[in-house]
Amino acid sequence: MGSGELFQHLRRSLLEYSVVQALVEGEAYPADLIGRLGRVGLQVPEGTVYPLLNRLKADGYVEYRWEESPSGPPRKYYSLSAKGLKLAEEYRQAWEKLKKSVDSLNTSQNKHEKNL
Amino acid sequence: MGSGELFQHLRRSLLEYSVVQALVEGEAYPADLIGRLGRVGLQVPEGTVYPLLNRLKADGYVEYRWEESPSGPPRKYYSLSAKGLKLAEEYRQAWEKLKKSVDSLNTSQNKHEKNL
DNA sequence: AAAAGATACCTTGTATTGCAAGGTACTATT
DNA sequence: AATAGTACCTTGCAATACAAGGTATCTTTT
């Protein structure tokens, strides 16, 4: 993905960015991930997370390994691939740029109010 | 729209937020609007803007008036209604919250790196 | 050892959003 | 009266988000 393309994409899928960032923290199985996102206020249902992880897997951004659970069926622990880590960093930059872009709409509005 | 609902919605439609904020600056016709967004780096095509404005109109967030153009057919100048201004302010708060949420994913990641 | 409960995983169908492409109408210029 | 430019708008497709519903595994209870 090109840089401008990434920027456009991020505008649409903040959730994908959030999931990728949450995975930078370390591997997680879906319920873990939902917990990490929920803790910062991003409530995301299962039905959103599973397809998203499958997409990221299909595109080579994440890998997973099976691990037994102490209490229930085995879990799929997802982690970022090398390609995924690179994406995470590119996304971080796109996010900084996006924040600036969006916030500068307010800035120019203030300029206007102050008649500059 | 409720506050949490707005937050979830903003996650999905940053563009709507951007358009609403751009209108806080003052009335504009679609090409104006596209210019304001483009100037801060948000490239948005016509085919996105027209339906969006129609939606905002249908929901009572914006109004418009016709004005003759010095060079071409008349323009629809859009501006925020009272309801739209209120939305703009609620959106601004949701945006601040969203930025914090998303950024705190990185913070907890840093904590982890520093072993706190 | 059956049944019930809890925890995983996943899919399907619908709504929403974003946009490229294509279309209509008005105005100004040649 | 033909062309070019500027405005408006719609249609159809792709991607994203998610509620609802489904299957399988493992543990606990009866």
Q: What does this entry look like structurally?
A:
Two copies of one chain form a homodimer. Chain A has 116 residues and is α+β, with helices and mostly antiparallel strands. The first copy, chain A, has five helices and two strands; from the N terminus they run H-H-H-H-E-E-H. A two-stranded antiparallel ribbon of chain A has the order 1-2. In chain A, helix 1 packs across helix 2, helix 1 (3-12) packs across helix 5 (82-113) and helix 2 crosses helix 5 (82-113). Chain A has one domain (3-113): Arc Repressor Mutant, subunit A (Orthogonal Bundle), CATH 1.10.10.10. In chain A, a hairpin with a 2-residue loop joins strand 1 and strand 2 (72-80). The model of chain A has no long low-confidence stretch (mean pLDDT 93). The A-B interface holds A 7-8, 11-12, 14-15, 17-18, 21-22, 24-26, 36-37, 39-43, 92, 95, 97-102, 104-106, 108-109, 112 and B 7-8, 11-12, 14-15, 17-18, 21-22, 24-26, 36-37, 39-43, 92, 95, 97-102, 104-106, 108-109, 112.
